[in-house]
Design goal:
46% strand; elongated
């Protein structure tokens, strides 16, 4: 614009260390019609809504280093990061619905590893996943009832490890921050 006008988007830096700007190709980059959910409990969790006929868009933000980006539904492309401005851009595509949920963090999103032992199972995850707690549910539908596990967690090398007794009943596990 050569008329001397300016447009600024101001966002807080959350506990993750990331300032999420949203879809800066839109006038209201964090409007509820585009960003239906946004939280930052140490990782930025964002759900974006696609307009009818739209299949991809680009999300941007500020981070002190290149963020790790994971799609919980839909998909993400390769993120670009400009080290001088600390701005990142990541292309996202919709999945089977009209939304995509993305997690951004300065460390990778932790994953669980499960090892079968005789009569037991060992669940482990990285120790750098600070603030995450192991939860369990016996069913995923219609609505899972996630409860914290009561098993002791020990550090073995660079892994948090919990050993559980096999009960013969189906169980699901997740990490929750």
């Amino acid at each position: 614009n050569t008329n001397g006008g300016s447009y600024f988007v101001v966002v807080p830096i959350g506990p993750s260390g990331i300032g999420f700007l949203g879809d800066t190709n839109k006038f209201v980059s964090l409007g509820k019609k585009r960003v239906s959910e946004l939280s930052d409990p140490g990782f930025v969790h964002v759900t974006v809504v696609f307009a009818p006929g739209e299949t991809n868009l680009t999300l941007t933000g500020y981070a002190p280093s290149a963020p790790y980006v994971t799609a919980l539904n839909g998909s993400v492309g390769t993120a670009s990061y400009h080290s001088a401005s600390h701005l990142f851009a990541v292309p996202v595509s919709r999945g089977n619905s009209n939304t995509t949920t993305v997690v951004l963090g300065l460390v990778p999103v932790p994953s669980l590893q499960i090892t079968n032992l005789v009569g037991q199972m060992q669940i482990s995850w990285p120790t750098n996943a600070q603030g995450f707690r192991l939860q369990t549910a016996t069913a995923l539908a219609p609505q899972p009832d996630w409860t914290p596990t009561t098993n002791a967690v020990f550090t073995v090398g660079d892994q948090n490890t919990a050993t559980l007794t096999a009960t013969g009943v189906a169980a699901f596990y997740r990490l929750k921050q």
